[in-house]
Write a structure and sequence with these properties.
The protein is of the alpha/beta class and 524 residues long. The protein folds into three domains: 272 residues, Aldolase class I (TIM Barrel, Alpha-Beta Barrel), CATH 3.20.20; 88 residues, Recoverin, domain 1; 123 residues, Double Stranded RNA Binding Domain (2-Layer Sandwich). It has 17 helices and 16 strands. The chain has an eight-stranded parallel beta barrel, surrounded by eight helices. It has a three-stranded antiparallel beta sheet with strand order 11-12-13. A three-stranded antiparallel beta sheet has the order 14-15-16. Helix 9 links the parallel strand 7 and strand 8. The protein is globular. The N terminus is likely disordered. The structure holds zinc ion. Zinc ion binds next to loops.
Length: 524
C-alpha cells in the first residue's frame, strides 16, 4: 500500500538517505508481557501470554520479552508455553544482575536474556548500596555465565537517561569485554527529552559502533514516542515498547505509535504488518483486561470517529481533510458518530451503511428526531437511529429474537445462575448458564440457548454501563457493541435492573444486526 506522507516538510525534517536506510532495519523488542504486565493489577495466565505472543509474532515483532523467569512458578510456565510455540521471534526473559535469575531463564529455554543493571548513581546507591566497580564486576559475572550457557545477552542500563555518561561508557565497556550482544539505554522514569536522548545515542553509537543499542522509554511526560524516534535517529538500532503503551505508571512507549510515526510521517517502512495493529491492540486489551483510552492515538475508539457536521462532511468529500491516515492501513474503519454535532451528509452516509435509502424529506425528519434525542443529553446509538428511521420510513420492525422468560439467582453463597426461554424464527430454546455475577450468568444462558442458531456468530465487542441517576435506585444505561462479520452495531437498554437492561441491549442489538444483514442481502 502506498502511503502519502502528509505532514513532512522536507526542509524541517531532513533525514539523509543513509539514516533512512538504517531506520528501515530498526528492530522491535516487545515488552508487553514483562514491563506491560507490571501494570498494577494485571496478571496474565500462561494461555493468555501465548495468545498475545502469537499476535505479536504475526505482526512481525523481532524480540518478545515473555516475562521475568525469576518471578514465580506460574511466570515460568507462561514463558515456557510461549517458547513451545516455536514462533519466529526471539524469546527473551528479563533478569536482574543475579545468577539465579539467569538459571531460571535457562530453565525456560529462552533464546536471550534482558539483563537489567543499575546504571545511575541514584539506583546503585538506593537499590543496592553498591559502588560502580562492584556493579561492573557483577555484570561481568552474569554475562560470562549467560554466554557460557549459549544465551544472547542484551545488557540494559537501568535509569540510563539519568546516569552520568562516563558511567554508561564504563558499563558498556564491561559489556563489550564480556561479549554482550546488544546494549540498551532505559529512560526508566520517563524524564528524558528528545535533544538529550539524541545526543546520548549519537555519542554511544559512535563509541560502540559494532554493538546494536536499544532505547527503552517510559511515558511519564508523554514524550516516549518523541524520545524513541530521537534515539533511533541518533543511531539506535532497536526500540523497546508495548502494545497500547501499557506498563508501569504512565506506561511504556506504544509500539504502534512508533511504527506508524515512522511509516506515515517519515516514510520509513519497518518489516511489520501495520494492518494487524488494531486487532493486536484488541488482543492485548482483552487479555490484559486493560481498556484502551477512547482518545488513544491510532487504537482508541475515537481515533477515526467523526461527529461534527463540518468534519464529517469534509471527510466524506476527501478523507485527508480530517484524517492523518486512512483507517484501513491499521485494520480499522472510519466511524461517523451521530449526535448533537452531526450533519445531514454524515447521517445519510450512515443510513446507507445500514441499508436505508431515504428521500430528502425523510432525511430531514430523521435528522430532526435524532437532534431532539441528542439534545436530551442521550448518546445516540446505531439502534436508536435505526428505530427512528424505521418509524419515519414505516418499515416493519421485525423481532427476530424474543425473550419469553428469564430467571436469575444470585447470592453470597452461590454461583450466579440464570435460565432463559427464547424464541427465534418460530422456535423456542431453553437453556441455563452460570457466571461471575448475575449479568454474566444471564448472558451465558442466552449464549447457550442460541448456540446452534445464526446468532451465535454475533460477537460482543464492547459492554458499557452508566448510572444515569445516583443512589442504589439509579437508572442504568447499558450500551453494547456487537459485530457479525463486517457489520457493527451499537444498541442500548435502560432501566432500574442492570440484568434486564443488559439483556434488552443485547437482544435489541441482535435484532438490529439481523435486520441490517437482511437489508444488505436484499440490496445485492
Ligand atoms: Zn521499563
Amino acid at each position: 500500500m502506498v502511503v502519502t506522507i502528509l505532514s513532512v516538510d522536507k526542509d524541517v525534517f531532513s533525514i539523509d538517505e543513509e539514516v533512512l536506510k538504517r531506520l528501515k532495519n530498526v528492530r522491535i523488542f516487545d515488552t508487553t508481557l514483562r514491563d506491560g504486565e507490571q501494570t498494577p493489577g494485571c496478571i496474565l495466565t500462561p494461555p493468555q501470554k501465548v495468545k498475545i505472543a502469537r499476535a505479536l509474532d504475526e505482526f512481525g515483532i523481532h524480540v518478545i520479552e515473555a516475562g521475568m523467569a525469576i518471578t514465580s512458578v506460574g511466570e515460568r510456565e507462561g514463558i515456557k508455553a510461549v517458547v513451545k510455540e516455536g514462533l519466529n521471534a526471539e524469546i527473551c526473559s528479563g533478569c536482574r544482575a543475579v545468577i539465579v535469575d539467569i538459571e531460571r531463564s535457562l530453565e525456560c529455554e529462552v533464546d536471550s536474556i534482558h539483563l537489567i543493571v543499575a546504571s545511575s548513581e541514584l539506583h546503585r546507591r538506593e537499590k543496592f548500596g553498591k559502588t560502580l566497580e562492584e556493579i561492573l564486576e557483577i555484570t561481568t559475572n552474569c554475562i560470562d555465565f549467560a554466554k557460557d550457557h549459549g544465551l544472547i545477552v542484551e545488557l540494559s542500563a537501568e535509569d540510563g537517561s539519568r546516569a552520568d555518561i562516563n558511567d554508561l561508557f564504563a558499563l558498556f565497556t564491561t559489556g563489550k569485554e564480556a561479549k554482550a550482544d546488544r546494549f540498551c539505554v532505559c529512560d526508566t522514569v520517563g524524564v528524558a527529552v528528545p535533544e538529550q536522548i539524541y545526543a546520548r545515542f549519537k555519542t554511544l553509537t559512535e563509541t560502540f559502533p559494532n554493538i546494536p543499542i536499544s532505547i527503552h522509554c517510559h511515558n511519564d511526560f508523554g514524550l516516549a514516542v518523541a524520545n524513541t524516534l530521537a534515539a533511533l535517529k541518533g543511531g539506535g538500532k532497536q526500540f523497546h515498547g508495548t502494545i497500547n503503551g501499557v506498563g508501569e505508571r504512565a506506561g511504556n512507549v506504544a509500539i504502534e505509535e512508533v511504527v506508524m510515526s515512522l511509516k506515515a510521517l517519515y516514510g520509513v517502512e519497518l518489516p511489520v504488518k501495520p494492518e494487524k495493529i488494531f486487532e493486536l491492540s484488541r488482543v492485548v486489551s482483552d487479555n490484559m483486561n486493560l481498556p484502551v483510552a477512547f482518545n488513544k492515538a491510532l487504537v482508541g475508539e475515537n481515533a477515526f470517529a467523526h461527529e461534527s457536521g463540518i468534519h464529517s462532511s469534509a471527510v466524506l468529500k476527501n478523507p485527508e481533510t480530517y484524517e492523518p491516515i486512512a483507517p484501513n492501513i491499521i485494520g480499522r474503519r472510519r466511524r461517523l458518530v451521530m449526535g448533537k454535532h452531526a450533519g445531514k451528509a454524515a447521517l445519510k452516509e450512515v443510513l446507507e451503511e445500514f441499508g436505508f435509502h431515504v428521500n430528502d424529506e425523510q432525511l430531514i425528519e430523521i435528522f430532526d428526531k435524532m437532534k431532539k434525542l441528542a439534545d436530551l443529553g442521550k448518546k445516540v446509538t446505531d439502534s436508536d437511529l435505526v428505530a427512528i428511521t424505521e418509524t419515519v420510513t414505516e418499515g416493519t420492525i421485525e423481532e427476530a429474537v424474543k425473550l419469553d422468560e428469564l430467571t436469575v439467582v444470585t447470592g453470597n453463597k452461590i454461583t450466579s445462575t440464570a435460565s432463559v426461554k427464547i424464541a427465534t424464527n418460530g422456535k423456542e430454546f431453553f437453556s441455563s448458564g452460570y457466571g461471575t455475577g448475575p449479568v454474566d450468568a444471564a448472558m451465558k444462558a442466552i449464549e447457550s440457548a442460541l448456540k446452534n442458531t445464526a446468532i451465535s456468530q454475533i460477537h460482543l465487542e464492547d459492554y458499557h454501563v452508566d448510572a444515569i441517576t445516583g443512589g442504589t435506585e439509579a437508572v442504568v444505561n447499558v450500551r453494547v457493541t456487537l459485530r457479525k462479520g463486517d457489520n457493527l452495531i451499537t444498541a442500548s437498554g435502560a432501566g432500574g435492573d442492570i440484568v434486564m437492561a443488559s439483556v434488552e441491549a443485547m437482544l435489541t442489538g441482535f435484532n438490529k444486526l439481523i435486520a441490517l444483514e437482511k437489508r444488505k442481502n436484499h440490496e445485492k
